[in-house]
């Protein structure tokens, strides 16, 4: 750096002899959950070219850098893995769909679709975000699923049902805290218990739910026992 003097003789800011400068180019955009802002924001995906500078003037290329994600609000840069985190809107939809799928799976496993089970399931699904869900709608969906897939009520969780549960829960599980994953399992357990003790098919379905949520077998057993105990 070279020192300098201002017009009044005082020391001026030093001039940087050598440095680097990055020229960014936008290559995409969208919406993401910004960890800096703590909410959904627009972003630009950037790639950059670095150059050596002499007295602030670019003189030689130094190579490419990035890509990075720049928040349109706070202007901070993040690695592209930040895009793996769902937006708040997307996360809410994933959670709502997961609870709905678990409710249908437990009802189908229960076999009888009793009124108490349907009432508990409908209340659970409404609390998750499907505000207009009714007992009759859930009952009709379970009937339609059985007719479409040839599924037999009250039988252990088959391949088709296991795939449906994993499709709904696998993408969600990494973004849930342990308490959140346990909450979804317990909601399914309460639906199963609404008309009496667990049936073997209900236990099997709930075990599949636990596996999809990456809850270990011992914890699944503990949680199902806890749900059965009156609070």
Descriptive report:
With 231 residues, this protein is α+β, with helices and mostly antiparallel strands. The protein is 45% helix and 26% strand. It contains seven helices and six strands. It has helices at 88-110, 115-128, 135-149, 159-169, 178-193, 200-212, 217-228; strands at residues 2-5, 11-15, 18-34, 39-54, 57-71, 77-78. It has a four-stranded antiparallel β-sheet, with no helix packed on it. The protein has a two-stranded antiparallel ribbon with strand order 1-2. Helix 1 (88-110) packs across helix 3 (135-149) and helix 2 (115-128) packs across helix 3 (135-149). The longest helix has 23 residues, at 88-110. The model is unreliable at 1-6 and 150-154 (pLDDT under 50).
Helix content: 40-55%
- Spatial shape: elongated
Mean pLDDT: 84
- List low-pLDDT spans: 1-6, 150-154
Question: What is the count of β-strands?
Answer: 6
**Strand composition percent:** 25-35%
Q: What characterizes the major β-sheet? A: 4 strands, antiparallel
What is the alpha-carbon Rg in Å?
28 Å
* Strands in their spatial order, largest beta sheet: 3-4-5-6
Order of helices and strands: EEEEEEHHHHHHH
Class from helix and strand fractions: alpha+beta
The DSSP helix count reads: 7
Distance between the termini: 71 Å
Domain Co-chaperone DjlA N-terminal: 98-222
InterPro entries: DjlA_N, TerB-like
Protein name: TerB family tellurite resistance protein
Pfam families: TerB
């Amino acid at each position: 750096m070279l020192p300098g003097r201002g017009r009044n003789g005082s020391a001026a800011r030093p001039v940087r002899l050598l440095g680097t400068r990055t020229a960014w180019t936008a290559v995409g955009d969208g919406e993401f959950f910004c960890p800096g802002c703590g909410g959904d924001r627009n972003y630009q995906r950037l790639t950059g070219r670095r150059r050596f500078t002499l007295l602030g003037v670019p003189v030689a290329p130094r190579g490419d850098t990035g890509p990075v994600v720049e928040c349109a609000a706070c202007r901070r840069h993040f690695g592209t893995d930040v895009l793996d985190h769902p937006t708040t809107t997307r996360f809410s939809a994933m959670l709502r769909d997961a609870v709905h799928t678990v409710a249908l799976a437990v009802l189908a496993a229960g076999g009888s679709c009793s009124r108490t089970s349907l009432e508990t399931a409908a209340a659970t699904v409404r609390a998750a975000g499907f505000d207009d869900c009714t007992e009759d709608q859930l009952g009709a969906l379970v009937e339609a699923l059985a007719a479409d897939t040839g599924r037999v009520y009250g039988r252990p969780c088959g391949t088709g049902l296991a795939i449906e549960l994993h499709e709904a829960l696998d993408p969600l599980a990494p973004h849930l805290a342990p308490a959140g994953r346990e909450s979804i399992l317990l909601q399914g357990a309460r639906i199963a218990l609404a008309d009496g003790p667990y049936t073997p098919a209900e236990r099997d379905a709930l075990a599949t739910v636990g596996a999809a949520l990456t809850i270990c077998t011992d914890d699944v057993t503990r949680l199902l026992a806890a749900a059965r105990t009156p609070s």
